[in-house]
What we know:
A: 27 strands, globular, B: alpha+beta
Amino acid sequence: xxxxxxxxxxxxxxxxxxxxxxxxxxxxxxxxxxxxxxxxxxxxxxxxxxxxxxxxxxxxxxxxxxxxxxxxxxxxxxxxxxxxxxxxxxxxxxxxxxxxxxxxxxxxxxxxxxxxxxxxxxxxxxxxxxxxxxxxxxxxxxxxxxxxxxxxxxxxxxxxxxxxxxxxxxxxxxxxxxxxxxxxxxxxxxxxxxxxxxxxxxxxxxxxxxxxxxxxxxxxxxxxxxxxxxxxxxxxxxxxxxxxxxxxxxxxxxxxxxxxxxxxxxxxxxxxxxxxxxxxxxxxxxxxxxxxxxxxxxxxxxxxxxxxxxxxxxxxxxxxxxxxxxxxxxxxxxxxxxxxxxxxxxxxxxxxxxxxxxxxxxxxxxxxxxxxxxxxxxxxxxxxxxxxxxxxxxxxxxxxxxxxxxxxxxxxxxxxxxxxxxxxxxxxxxxxxxxxxxxxxxxxxxxxxxxxxxxxxxxxxxxxxxxxxxxxxxxxxxxxxxxxxxxxxxxxxxxxxxxxxxxxxxxxxxxxxxxxxxxxxxxxxxxxxxxxxxxxxxxxxxxxxxxxxxxxxxxxxxxxxxxxxxxxxxxxxxxxxxxxxxxxxxxxxxxxxxxxxxxxxxxxxxxxxxxxxxxxxxxxxxxxxxxxxxxxxxxxxxxxxxxxxxxxxxxxxxxxxxxxxxxxxxxxxxxxxxxxxxxxxxxxxxxxxxxxxxxxxxxxxxxxxxxxxxxxxxxx
Amino acid sequence: xxxxxxxxxxxxxxxxxxxxxxxxxxxxxxxxxxxxxxxxxxxxxxxxxxxxxxxxxxxxxxxxxxxxxxxxxxxxxxxxxxxxxxxxxxxxxxxxxxxxxxxxxxxxxxxxxxxxxxxxxxxxxxxxxxxxxxxxxxxxxxxxxxxxxxxxxxxxxxxxxxxxxxxxxxxxxxxxxxxxxxxxxxxxxxxxxxxxxxxxxxxxxxxxxxxxxxxxxxxxxxxxxxxxxxxxxxxxxxxxxxxxxxxxxxxx
Lengths: 716, 252
């Protein structure tokens, strides 16, 4: 960076930024700070515990089989605009050669249109409900046609459109209505309905009297649909100060009328009951937003964050059956929203739940879900690492932060104390990647022979991600000498232990640390010798949630077989995950999860794969990579207990979200934070929130930040 | 490159003072996102831009002024009521007949209800039919409320042309008896045909009803029964666009 002034060039020293942590937020921050258009304004170093980037999104490859081993199940949603934009830019910048297994971003992420939930029927049997969400216009990360398409009013209109569509689907169950983001599908469905009306009208007026039923049914549809349209129009014309009383009264009446219609039908029809549950949810959302004044509130959906999502729906007319439905319960599973991991204590802030649901269902582009075609480390963190390296970002692996020290006047961060876990053989930077079938990947364990005393470490099975791992020394970074700005981008669970001085100095930090909570998670992966279709699964590959504990979510990951290197190839790969109750966390948590896996496979998995069990329980010979036919075969598979501070998942508890500090907050004048636990606009534990937070953290160092580029930050 | 806030202080840099620290969550957030850049004028949100596409009656904003359609007259409410009456009349027609449970419609219904017995189906049909009147009243009430809510704004638009996009065909009646008639259009589109007009309460309809270009022609025979007759005006794709109501008063 060499600007010229009168009298000759003046060299301006780049600002040195120390980023601690290597997850999505850290990578997004570094990516933004080192954009070519910033012309070298920042000199960035990432300090990472252990041997790999990724944080909660880290994955590794088994050294022998190339199997992918994840911290948990990761699906990208079609509304992850900022995250996808980052990935698209990274892949574009990387310019991988032709023939590379993941040359472009669309090789790495593939649309997934099916989503499922499992629900318990009155007879205590479980039933799967699979829904197809059709492709929506555009692709995530495309430039938006409007600068900010998000508004409560717009969302309520979308709710009403969806309501119409669902009701139309009840009119004619042979027609599966699209649930897209536009109204084209609604128009087509409405036209279909009206056409059927007219074809009947055109026929003999004095024909079969069963027409009465048809007309009754149509009257139900036509009038309710028109009423909904009227509401839609009313919603769009409301202005601040409008008297909302008459509208909510009318909405109550409309809801009652719709409910009465469904009551006639749902007793005998599960599909109708599910539609009713969604209709009931939508009605409660519209009613609740109008009653609570969300439309014109300066707080947007935040206004509702003091309530639990299910309680809020109940307060606004949803029925108990609805809030107990798989559709609503699934939103808790998705966000591990169980306080202390106790599934009997579901807690999810209503405002964020609503914001997430609106973004998820109404603003997705391309597909509702996108599935990665390799491990998250391979797909996300290897290419971003390579891009950042090319830009000159420095990486200090095997650096575990122990303490953040403030200046005497507590105005700024003065020092960063690290444990150095290992040294690189011959000095220089550690080369962290390995090649698996032509793809750059992170190994599950360090590449020992690149480390000093590597052979010894390998023999000991040394894992630098374990809290009790041995180390080789310490390092202290000092402000002015080693860094100008510091950005803490680690998981929230580690924050209280690292930031004791900040918490002591700042009441806002104290408040945040006192209220934001995390939860441990557990996950396992199995590689099978038979395809799941042969085990009795009849539907397309699916991601399904809402099932029993200890593992409520299953994702079919068969797409990974081709990028792993196991011989012979397995026929199926399945990932399962769930919360891990705090009550099960102790030094034996890893073994506890092992027991949970065995229990689940013996007792519960038959619901998905009925032929995977016999009278003795799970057929252990199905597990690939093991000759053992007892339950010990599970040791050939992979499971994890994510219990350490950096691994724990942040919860969106009611009444806590307003305590989160924003990366933009100037609490300490050379320091900021990044992570999905910060006040980043989308207050949920997910990739998109982490990336948004990273972009905010970078913006905090800019003189003229352009926050409008962070899609969905200015969002109700 | 450095700014006053970034000048070294005691040998170190400070963060620039943030312009703001929170997202804009209010309704104006949609308009103000580019405030940091300050160059662009606010634009309308998607819902605002397209809101009138979803007018319950399909009315379009005035092409010149962009103002909402005029809703202060009683016309819309009458339209709604008339449209509802058309359907209502057919329901009542249907109720005069026995319900043959085995026909195709019931087959569909049976499937819908998961294979319930025919008595249940018959009951269900009655309930569905009965509930119509409740729903109609709700809907009409909403339409009336809509008129109240938007009344003040619509008054301003009164001088603008109304009902842009609504084709309103002329009505020509050949009748040997005194009749009253009106055409009500409740959706945009080009009329393509008209149903025979059927009397409320059943009976012989007025079958000689045609639509030629922009004219609806109805022939009323001398022996036509007194009462109110309704017929739907249809668009090219069979979508109902409006209704013709014709009244033959009784002898006085």
